[in-house]
Write a structure and sequence with these properties.
The chain is mainly α and 218 residues long. The chain has helices at 2-10, 14-23, 35-46, 54-66, 70-82, 92-99, 105-122, 127-133, 139-147, 158-167, 174-188, 192-202, 208-215. The radius of gyration is 18 Å and the shape is globular. The chain starts with a helix and ends with a helix.
Length: 218
């Protein structure tokens, strides 16, 4: 953590930080380190260190989330993505904490697709947890449930995918309606006919935004 904060802070760009903070609706302060440079710096931060275990990943992620500047959360997300196969099912509550703390799409979507999705892929019993998350009053938890299968391709649980879309089809928030369309559009790369048939069958229940997003590439 000392190496991380020193390395990132030395690369801060206040002008870029202000621009990025405005773009992301002031969700958090920024250092102003662009993504390519940030990833390059991250490699120097972890150089020579052993692979982290679950305790390391948990401690680093929670500590990064406590720091105000958003780039530290990005570091944590990248770390979790890289080592998700080393994380057990019991990491899911930590992932939920990250999803529900200083929540915005920039961290939630990566956690959903690469961390939560990876945990569920490794332990299908966690699908029952996703059945609970999809009904959560916190829209970011529900969005995570909608998006957690983005990378599952031909192992996608289509019954849950389509079911989740219908269960949240009447949600008034843009981020949920967009996620419905995105999850369908991504699965359409694997089974376009299934998505087309689902959208045509349920068009009356889906928001126009969800339909447009789902069919964008069909």
């Amino acid at each position: 953590m000392e190496r991380l904060t020193a390395t990132y802070a030395a690369a801060a760009d206040p002008t870029r930080a202000a621009q990025t903070q405005a773009y992301l609706k002031n969700v958090a302060p920024f250092l102003g380190v662009p993504a390519p440079l940030r990833r390059q710096l991250s490699r120097t931060v972890v150089a020579g260190l052993p692979r982290p275990d679950e305790a390391d990943c948990t401690a680093i992620a929670l500590r990064c989330w406590q720091l105000p500047e958003r780039e530290y959360a990005y570091f944590a997300v990248d770390l979790l993505r890289r080592h998700v196969k080393r994380l057990p099912s019991g990491f899911l509550p930590v992932a939920r904490h990250l999803v529900t703390t200083v929540s915005w799409w920039d961290t939630v979507d990566a956690l959903a697709a690469h961390v939560v999705g990876g945990l569920v892929a490794a332990d299908p019993e966690l699908r029952a947890e996703m059945d609970v998350w999809i009904e959560d009053a916190d829209l970011w938890v529900a969005r995570t449930a909608l998006l957690h299968q983005l990378r599952h391709k031909d192992t996608t649980d289509t019954e849950r995918l389509f079911g989740y879309c219908l269960r949240q089809s009447g949600h008034p928030d843009f981020f949920i309606r967009k996620a419905i369309g995105w999850s369908l559009r991504e699965y359409a790369k694997t089974d376009p006919e299934a998505v087309r048939d689902f959208v045509e069958r349920e068009r009356g229940r889906l928001a126009p935004l969800s339909v447009r997003e789902a069919l964008k590439n069909l």
